[in-house]
Design a protein that fits this description.
Shape: globular
Number of strands: 2
Order of helices and strands: HHHEHHHHEHHH
Helix content: 55-70%
Oligomer: single chain
Distance between the termini: 107 Å
Strand content: under 5%
Radius of gyration: 26 Å
Number of helices: 10
Length: 263
């Protein structure tokens, strides 16, 4: 009887499932997977910060949005232009359209974010809340949807970009990577595509039409705007002329050559 109990005891004490030898073999594998996952997350999280520092001096060769477009087989038209080669008309109009407090915040407009959050809570989400700096972070490094997963990465990155790059460099990068039509990226490509001229030669009206198309550039044609887009462009042109001080951190009085002086 004792011998029988001795033979059965190891079977009772040893839990069912994966044998101990196999479990020992799988443990290092799980550890390696965990370490690789941590490394991948660290690279994903910190790479935009490293590249932001690099982009202080080096112009971005492409953006995450351009890369996705190219990988899906879509066209990509992109030609970099320095800020002094872009019409001040466009700079002022884009600030008026996308982020009137661009010169007053530090990359993130918390007041606008609070309003957007309140609208979501009330069941009336209307978008908004994203500054030009946040849009630059999104277009350059991140993804579009789902936004709720993007925001925790976008908000601290936008604050860092505002600190590291400064206002002029942020708006310069934004104007060069934002999409102004299907596969049309940046002010120069947009000016050539819609008006057959360089970004430095845009009139106040042309600049207003480009700015008015920004919320939905794949549906709004800046070169041939519909009545609603044209009306929005007219309002933007009047607002930019009336509130040109909103661009003080990027444009000074001397640089606003020809701003809203005619077509």
């Amino acid at each position: 009887m004792a011998c029988v109990m001795t033979d059965i005891a190891p079977q009772i004490l040893e839990p069912p499932g994966i044998p101990a030898s196999e479990e020992k073999e799988q443990s290092p594998l799980r550890q390696r997977i965990f370490r690789l996952s941590l490394i991948a997350f660290a690279v994903f999280f910190f790479a935009p910060y490293v590249l932001t520092i690099l982009y202080i001096l080096v112009d971005p060769p492409f953006s995450a949005l351009m890369l996705r477009q190219a990988l899906t087989g879509g066209p990509v038209t992109y030609e970099w232009r320095d800020l002094d080669q872009i019409s001040p008309n466009l700079i002022a109009q884009v600030i008026a359209a996308e982020d009137g407090r661009f010169c007053k915040h530090y990359g993130v407009d918390w007041t606008a974010l609070d309003r957007a959050a309140d609208a979501v809570v009330d069941g009336k989400p209307k978008g908004g809340g994203s500054t030009i700096t946040m849009q630059t972070a999104k277009n350059l490094f991140l993804w579009n949807r789902p936004a709720i997963l993007r925001k925790p990465f976008e908000i601290p990155l936008a604050s860092f970009m505002d600190f590291a790059l400064g206002k002029q460099r942020v708006i310069e990068i934004y104007l060069n990577i934002v999409e102004w039509g299907p596969g049309v990226f940046g002010a120069e490509a947009a000016a050539q595509h819609h008006f057959g001229k360089s970004a430095g030669d845009l009139t106040p009206q042309e600049a207003a039409q480009l700015a008015a198309a920004l919320p939905n550039p794949k549906r709004r044609n800046a070169g041939k705007p519909g009545p609603r887009t044209m009306a929005f462009a007219h309002r933007l042109r009047m607002r930019a002329a009336r509130e040109r001080g909103d661009s003080f951190c990027v444009l000074d009085a001397d640089s606003e050559r020809g701003d809203d002086t005619g077509d």
